[in-house]
């Protein structure tokens, strides 16, 4: 086993942070920490550390143990650690300790950081004190159930008070529609109105509109109905008497029977047509708010023009006065139903410009006439008086939605309201974990079919929220997805007849609730292995195992091949990249050429360099493959093989520094799934790593800072590799500064720890 000294200090930080995330206190060292696994057996913390690799175990000991040398000596016995390495470890330890001391001394300078770490160590999560989520009170108001968007909620409360429009921009499932619904609860319900539509005696195609306080509309229509009922009963009796009389005469005068039947039918038909004035003038209740406790909330997402703006139904019997009166065919739109309430439109940019324009004029005028939306329908002849539609618009979508949004609409929201950008994660603090627990309690209550969650199950949910955040010290706010896991875990527990959801139910649910992208990624890995697109063994020139992300959080192996051929053009060589590259990916390919020239001294203008993203039919975007591209190209030019047991990811700056990327955890998991033994990731991503327990022993995670770190870890071949690294050091002083102080590793094949 080899010790990666570079990573030890970093691991120290990661370990401390992870430890605190696990809600363990009263510990003297990491060795005291145990947890129960699915099978109920007690395991040391090393087994649940996401950053844990064989190397990291050592690093942790170095960090926490007082008898370090003794441990190292033990490790030497168990593993192949040389005395030199032991010395280096001592130096490393001293460095770590002095760093720690430094940070102690810098306490005053860095109050925030130290406060945080102190806080992480000292505070216990309160949720261990609760029996289950049953003990958690769910706030009655929806707006108070919104987790993690305190600033947005404040803005919404302000907007509700002043009846302002709001534009919510954020990722799917972060609670935009929930906030909009919550806003409706904050608007005063006592000012609601009902809307009635009456026929217009002078112009039947222009029905009249009347607004009354909410509840009155229903009363007026009911009163009218009871009058109508009495009249209809009387009319029926008279009609029956007349028909009976005529038929009786027909029977008396047998020869006239046929006439009598025809006369009876005629009487029946006429009586159907007779309607006194008070009935023909009966109103139709267009908007009924009588039952509403809160201001109305109308979700008009994806509504077509008729549903949004109101419509008048077609009547094939319009001519001759035999059809349904125009006012009875008038149908309200969502803008009218949302009067004095909230009209919510998700993905507003997908609405046609015409509909957005109409919506805009409705917002400006606060009233909007209803007319038939189809030009070929008789409804288009009808136009009601203006119907009130004084709503608060809450529009939402992701950032791209702005492109499809009518410019005047956006300006109107900005001028008379607020624009809110919603977060997709929140800091991992005690307070926020409590909020997540409240979220689980809410989801259980709202679902109504699943059992409550035990503290260990909550622990597992919080850990998953941390993983899904994909960012250090953060918890995800994509709570719709997390709610899916809560429900799936509840279903598993229910199936087993458990009274509470336990940690093992959450773990089982995680298997069932894999996203489509995760399933596709799994299948792609199997396929690529089958067809030998990549093979995690040995070394190959110009082929590197890159890593990418599909969907939200699914990693995928991205094999990249590079080939360098003498330039065909005398003036300069070309970089030719294939595999459906997006703009950012193309730019990163260009940047790599500058880097290679600068850092290896090779004039790549002498070559035509072909870079292929193997089997990427869906395209590649982002620059997180730039490190991989650089490694593949350097390997191709210098003809030094690349270790195929290693995968890597990272964005390369033009100075050769490896910069952080997104989706570190899922990329590492994808690499482990593909049988990769080592993965190189940017050092600054180390604290983001929260890999699943099952991958912990399968893969070694190595943090890298610079391109030379990458090459050191990925190239195979003793003399060529060393001379390349030396050349790089010599050529670029910038790189030389970044090269680690430690001596070069002995050249060897990758370790199989
Ligand atoms: N911040 C949050 N606090 C509490 N629950 C949340 C939050 N975000 C999402 N949820 C849960 O997820 C569900 C779906 O959220 P919601 O529909 O509001 O998301 P959205 O941002 O509007 O998504 P989309 O843009 O896809 O419509 C909510 O009903 C709630 O159960």
Describe how the helices and strands are arranged:
Blueprint (H helix, E strand, L loop, with lengths): L4 H17 L12 E3 L5 E3 L9 H11 L3 H11 L4 H23 L5 H12 L19 H4 L4 H13 L2 E5 L6 H11 L6 E6 L9 E6 L2 H37 L4 H17 L3 H4 L3 E4 L9 E3 L5 H5 L1 E2 L17 E2 L2 H4 L4 E5 L6 H13 L1 E5 L11 E6 L3 E6 L9 H9 L1 E5 L3 E3 L2 H18 L4 E2 L1 H15 L4 E3 L2 H17 L4 E2 L1 H10 L3 H15 L8 E3 L1 E8 L3 E13 L8 E4 L4 H18 L6 E7 L12 H13 L2 E3 L2 E3 L2 E2 L5 E2 L4 H10 L4 E5 L10 H4 L3 E5 L2 H8 L3 H14 L1 H6 L15
Helix pairs in contact: 1-2, 2-3, 3-4, 7-8, 9-10, 16-18, 17-19, 18-19, 21-22
Task: Characterize the structure shown.
By secondary structure, this protein is of the alpha/beta class. It has five domains: 5-122, no CATH class; 128-141 and 424-512, Helicase, Ruva Protein, domain 3 (Orthogonal Bundle), CATH 1.10.8; 149-215 and 288-422, P-loop containing nucleotide triphosphate hydrolases (Rossmann fold), CATH 3.40.50; 218-281; 520-738, Ribosomal Protein S5, domain 2 (2-Layer Sandwich), CATH 3.30.230.10. The protein has 27 helices and 29 strands. A seven-stranded mixed sheet has the order 22-23-21-20-25-28-29. A five-stranded parallel sheet has the order 7-10-13-3-14, with helices on both faces. A three-stranded antiparallel sheet has the order 5-4-6, covered by helices on one side. Bound molecules: adenosine-5'-triphosphate (ATP). The site of adenosine-5'-triphosphate has 19 residues, from α8, α16 and α18. This is ATP-dependent protease LonB. It comes from Methanobrevibacter arboriphilus. Keywords: Hydrolase, Protease.
